[in-house]
Automatic annotation (TrEMBL):
It is found in: Cell membrane. It comes from Veillonella tobetsuensis. GO terms for molecular function: ATP binding; ATP hydrolysis activity; transmembrane transporter activity. CDD domains: ABC_cobalt_CbiO_domain1 (cd03225). The keyword Nucleotide-binding applies. This is Putative ABC transporter ATP-binding protein YlmA. Residues 6-246 form the ABC transporter domain. Keywords: ATP-binding, Nucleotide-binding, Transport. Signal peptide: none annotated.
Length: 261
């Protein structure tokens, strides 16, 4: 398990007697960057929320960084994760009150906002990230005054403040217009290429799969129906079956685009 980042084995999750996830198996090794695809309601967010233990599997085995859930101190796992997710919406009222550079710096403490003394070294790293992500012109602004795209970039910078061993991006472009989406994706590309941080990118939009993504998994109705190298999984046949309509996959600069036939 030396090279193992993530391992799901026969994972099931039931809510109110209904199967949200059904016998999911998924394995990720170091050096791989994954996209997790699926239609709305497929179970993508539920599956990924198990990594920081926002959700607990009903049955099955989950290992993160080689450690099995229930047999290891999970706060140590959470401290090694970076997470940008719609689940952070539950903290929106707290985020809105924060000055944006403090939101970035708070990632070092896995908190929303700063509630303790910050060393000069931590503050320096936070401000360095703040400017590297093109946010310098927003210094001193409250989070709520930012556009949706700017807020996502702030949260992305926050997520890597603690140098995570795995970065999870759960539909980070949801609600962004085309220019904001492309700016955000360029930031993600630079991050992966320069810092070599492994990522899991969750979406239902095929065109968000960047060249840095090496593998793709597809969930359908709580079942893992495809998982493997992206060019093997993202075929006309597979995606037509998943979407329920005939589609064609067109590759441009190692990025896939879907055309409805």
């Amino acid at each position: 398990m030396e090279n193992e980042l993530l391992h799901y084995e026969n994972i099931c999750f039931r809510r109110d007697g209904r199967h949200i996830l059904d016998n999911v198996n998924w394995h990720i090794e170091k050096g791989e960057n994954w996209a997790l695809l699926g239609l709305n309601g497929a179970g993508k967010s539920t599956l990924l929320s198990m990594i920081p233990a926002y959700q607990i599997p009903t049955t099955g085995t989950l290992r993160v960084f080689g450690h099995e859930f229930g047999k290891y101190a999970w706060p140590k796992i959470k401290s090694r994760l970076g997470f940008v997710s719609s689940a952070l919406g539950q903290f929106q009222s707290t985020l809105d009150k924060q000055v944006v550079e403090d939101v970035v710096i708070s990632g070092a403490f896995s908190s929303i906002g700063i509630y303790q003394d910050v060393s000069p070294e931590v503050r320096e790293r936070g401000m360095q990230l703040f400017y590297e992500f093109g946010l310098g012109h927003l210094e001193g602004h409250c989070f709520y005054t930012l556009s949706a795209g700017e807020q996502r970039r702030v949260l992305l910078a926050r997520s890597i403040m603690a140098n995570p061993d795995l970065l999870i991006l759960d539909e980070p472009c949801s609600g962004l217009d085309l220019p904001a989406r492309e700016r955000f994706l360029r930031t993600v590309s630079t991050l992966v290429e320069e810092q070599k941080t492994p990522i899991i990118y969750v979406s239902h939009q095929i065109e968000e799969i960047l060249p840095a993504i090496t593998h793709v998994a597809i969930l359908r109705e709580g079942k893992m129906v495809h998982a493997g190298l992206k060019h093997t999984v993202l075929t006309d046949e597979n995606l037509s079956d998943v979407f329920g309509i005939p589609v064609q996959v067109v590759w441009k600069d190692d990025r896939p685009w879907v055309i409805v036939r």
